[in-house]
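Appendix B. Worked example

We walk through a single record from start to finish. Start with the input: the chain for Glycoprotein endo-alpha-1,2-mannosidase, Hylia prasina, length 463.
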Amino acid sequence: ILNYDIMARFRRRTCIILLLFILFICSIMMALKTLRPDRAGFGDPFGLGLLPELQQRTVLLDSKQNSLNKAQGDTVTRVSNLHSIAVNTMKASMSPVKKLEEELSSPNYNFHIFYYTWYGNPQFDGKYIHWNHPLLPHWDPKIANNYPKGRHNPPEDIGANFYPELGSYSSKDPTVIEAHMKQMRSASTGVIVLSWYPPGMADENGEPTDDLVPVVLDYAHKYNLKVTFHIEPYKDRDDRSMYHNVKYIIDRYGSHPAFYRHKTSTGRLLPMFYVYDSYVTIPEIWANLLTVSGSQSIRNTPYDALFIALLVEERHKHDIHRSGFDGMYTYFATNGFSYGSSHHNWASLKAFCDSNNLMFIPSVGPGYIDTSIRPWNNHNTRNRVNGKYYETAFSAALLVRPEIISITSFNEWHEGTQIEKAVPKRTGQVVYLDYKPHKPNVYLELTLKWSEKYRKEQEQWLM
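Next comes the structure step. The output line below is what the pipeline stores for this chain.
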């Protein structure tokens, strides 16, 4: 009987140990899968459908043109009102700025962060904008029929998988803008890459936002941050319209103390423009604008600048060089989604850029999830793994010793790439993701950590 009891206990213990070992192996495999996705992700149709060759994402707001024309006379008044509200708010809070400067880490002007001002709510805009984002159908009707349609219904139901600590805010709210600046500064980022459309134009789900730029610049200056522009793929974007729009930005905003200029290796101080979906336009058109001999050349004029193209596929690096761009960035926060966003390709891209006198600006992100607006796209979801995904991306970026690192994003809530503060929230039918077990500011703290690490390592690189 004693031997039987001993054997039974031994078998029981062995089974428990074996079960725990299997669970451990499974958890390791899941973590590795999340951190190191398949390299073939870009070839998958889920990935390709997000790119504009198959789905045009921006339109001129033709349907709003009549109302815009009617409101043209009020534009100056509206901008003036926005600006005066912001100035009054800033005056009221200027006294603690010196103390704030002592508490916050110094801004790192080599950390650039993508920022969106396209959100609206009834209090400031008369309606919800972007929080009520429609559910985008799959391009294959057979697949589309398997997923819900319609649009979100804020404030409880928003077009995001996470919920902002500030709620369904308006980008025009001065208290929101200030809170954003304070968060970005607390993370030791230095340059805001502001999503921008020409006056009177916007993405297909939004409203024009150019009149917010002066307010953003003022608040950025208060926190010693700089602002550069992320030029979106507006309708009929070409060499001629780009020349006029770059001229407009520099003439209108270039004298502001928060307007970003980058010091080049030759000592020149030049504005910088990120050009989203640059590959949609053929290299010959870009060359007209960006090469010295081009018919619309902006080179060696008062409007010369550094132009940074989006690299998606490997072949784009040759097009970017031929076009006359000054560098490339990768934008997407999904490791494995595109050639450019795959961490294991950054070393070869950096080597290509070094050999062709181009800047390589890798984009790091905390994770990715857009199933609130693309319910069929869970293939491209990247779990945050409580911050480990973000740190893996930073680690990969530092390995290639880039001059600048870009962060996707501060507040692109639709795609779940935000590092802005998020809070747990549960409504009738929706349970939002959150940053637990960490606090709402965990991704700001991680950004600060890696900003300081980058500074220390960069000192060694320069030695």
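Two observations about the output. The longest helix spans residues 2-35. Residues 36-49, 53-76 have pLDDT under 50 and may be disordered.
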